[in-house]
Amino acid sequence: MARNKIKKICVMIGSRANYSSIKSFLIECKKNKYFNLQIVLFSSATLHRFGDLSKILLKDGFKISFKINTHVEGENLNTMVKSTALGLMQIPEILEMLKPDMVLTVGDRYETLATTISSSFMNIPLIHTMGGEVTGTIDEKIRHATSKFADIHFP
Q1: Which pairing describes strands 66-67 and 102-106: parallel, antiparallel, or unpaired?
Q2: Which residue in 33, 51, 102, 106 is a FRET match for 4, CA 20 to 30 A apart?
Q3: CA Rg value for the chain
Q4: Which residues pair with 66 in a beta bridge?
Q5: pLDDT at residue 28 above 70?
Q6: What single DSSP character describes residue 33?
Q7: Distance CA 65, CA 85 (A)
Q8: Could you tell me if residue 68 is left (phi over 0), alpha (psi between -120 and 50 degrees) or otherwise beta?
């Protein structure tokens, strides 16, 4: 493979907090002529009541490739499972359309698991950030599972 081939990196952003933690990466990736940045917003990142992340991204100079609605209202264990299932139904279609060379997922919430499973089953290398923390919650299990699936890992 040629060293200077442009790589498509699909960054899945599921919450405003996820954006804050990878914004510097996105800025550097956008500047690099060897990367084609694809941004997909989903889960609470698409909801106005959680800060309308699309407006923030556009203001910061980023293009949004897709917005998908995967968040089931209720904020309880049942709706987390349903939101994950919606992600599993929609994310593969987006990845099939975008044809990324790699997928970046952030953190440890339920939407991260949908991205992890989709990318891995589709044989698209997975990059994971923010792994390794021990909390004793469901987030810890998701974080560690995602770390196991990840091809490139940044704890």
Answers
A1: unpaired
A2: 106
A3: 15
A4: 40
A5: yes
A6: T
A7: 21
A8: beta
43 secondary structure, DSSP code: G
Distance CA 148, CA 43 (A): 23
Q: Which residue has the tokens 């091809």?
A: 151
CA distances from 134 to 40, 130, 145 (A): 28, 11, 13
Amino acid at 7: K
Q: pLDDT class for 2, splitting at 50, 70, 90?
A: low
Residues in the chain: 155
| Rounded Cα–Cα distance for residues 62 and 59 (Å) | 7
CB 49 within 8 A of CB 20: no
pTM of the model: 0.90
Give per-residue pLDDT as tens, 128-141: 987 666 666 777 78
pLDDT at 47: 82
Residue 64, classified by CB atoms within 10 Å of its CB into exposed (0-12), middle (13-18) or buried (19+), is middle
Sorted by sequence, the CB contacts under 8 Å of residue 8 that are 6+ apart come out as 35, 36, 38, 98, 99, 100, 101, 102
Q: Among candidates 116, 68, 119, 70, which has minimal Cα distance to 95? A: 119
Q: At what angle do helices 77-98 and 110-121 cross, to 10 degrees?
A: 40
Contact 46, 56 (CB under 8 A): no
